[in-house]
Amino acid sequence: MTISAQPDFAVIGGGLCGRLVAWQLAGDGHRVALYERGDVSGSQAAAWVAAAMLAPLAEAASAELLITRLGAASLETWPTLLDQLPERVFFQRNGSLIVWHHSDRAEAPLFERRLRANAPAELLDGGLVALAGAQVGAAEPALGGRFNQGWLLPHEGQLDNRQLLAALAAGLAARGVETHWNTSVDDNALPAARITIDCRGLGAKPVMPTLRGIRGEVARVHAPGIGLTRPVRLLHPRYPLYIAPKENDLYVIGATEVEGEDMSPVSVRSALELLSAAFSVHPAFGEARILELNSQCRPTLPDHRPALMWDGASTLRVNGLYRHGYMIVPEVAGEAVRFASALLDGRVADEDAFADWRNNARWRELFQLDRGHIRGDARPAATLNV
Ligand SMILES: Cc1cc2nc3c(=O)[nH]c(=O)nc-3n(C[C@H](O)[C@H](O)[C@H](O)COP(=O)(O)OP(=O)(O)OC[C@H]3O[C@@H](n4cnc5c(N)ncnc54)[C@H](O)[C@@H]3O)c2cc1C
């Protein structure tokens, strides 16, 4: 009898997307190996630095309808996913609050117009609540008396990114995924597997030349006593910022958005902008303790959409999650897992089958056939005779 030593799937990149895809495939009973260049914590991923806000309506100010719909659907899916993980992850669906200083009041109608133009009616209906000054204080007591107006987006959410990465790592172990931490995979020496799923984020640039990084910088501060209960976004013409409160008085303050793949530490200018803006939202941030200033690059494709790219053979690339990874990954990963399973069992083996699959997929806009990156089989032969 000949038993293949190859796993069904090799997932390359164990940041946000790779962990979720690997965990779900293993949950479906497949043999999965995961390769991550960084450590088990995920500290080399964009996912490590992110604020992990799940805000499809607020993001509609700058995102197209596809992203908003992916985000809205994913927000419904997150609780079910989190319930299956072996460790608890902080998740809340307590809304986002949008505020602005009086001098920046011209930003508010612009923001509202963009939302109304870009977001589907069902999200706007009851999802965008105008607040007068006293109502701002009623919604978010810490900000009482500080803002004359605001918007409450009551259905939005957030989670703790680092708790999620840890819980997924525990989930991978529980489901028997073969994990290779601190293992960088080279495109010329792919690990043995029947199907390869490339979730390397910006690390896939050598085979995805149109992929680019968009730098983001954040501050993590400890600020006991302020007590914000939901992410607060400050409208500003130059320094739009958010303050995302996590558990135990931890706040993630972010984020800059700068074209380029600069992974160097946070600049003085950005630190000043982030921290000053937070101080302007609540002066008690002046006494907060800075735990971390950090930067990472968001993996971004030219159209700012995520993509599932099949090479026509045995490789699927999942990339382009840009600034919406947490917000959309349940739907994107779900679609990737279904497609990868179809590749494995031969339901999709040629262009016609791919076209049929795409036409019937829930998120057909995500699928691309990209034969440009088909390469010779650089895998080691890996069959075991027993
Ligand atoms: C400052 C900032 C704030 C953000 N805030 C939010 C937010 O509030 N809400 C939201 O939804 N999204 C947010 N994001 C976006 C989100 O973090 C990304 O969209 C998401 O992390 C992308 O997931 P990914 O798995 O594709 O990439 P990553 O999370 O970057 O993971 C890719 C992994 O691949 C690994 N890798 C790379 N090359 C190799 C190799 N050769 N071999 C092995 N492993 C490799 C890397 O080490 C990494 O762990 C933010 C991002 C940033 C930078």
UniProtKB/TrEMBL annotation:
<keyword id="KW-0560">Oxidoreductase</keyword>
<protein>
    <submittedName>
        <fullName>Thiamine biosynthesis oxidoreductase ThiO</fullName>
    </submittedName>
</protein>
<dbReference type="InterPro" id="IPR036188">
    <property type="entry name" value="FAD/NAD-bd_sf"/>
</dbReference>
<feature type="domain" description="FAD dependent oxidoreductase">
    <location>
        <begin position="8"/>
        <end position="333"/>
    </location>
</feature>
<dbReference type="GO" id="GO:0016491">
    <property type="term" value="F:oxidoreductase activity"/>
</dbReference>
<dbReference type="InterPro" id="IPR006076">
    <property type="entry name" value="FAD-dep_OxRdtase"/>
</dbReference>
<dbReference type="GO" id="GO:0005737">
    <property type="term" value="C:cytoplasm"/>
</dbReference>
<dbReference type="Pfam" id="PF01266">
    <property type="entry name" value="DAO"/>
</dbReference>
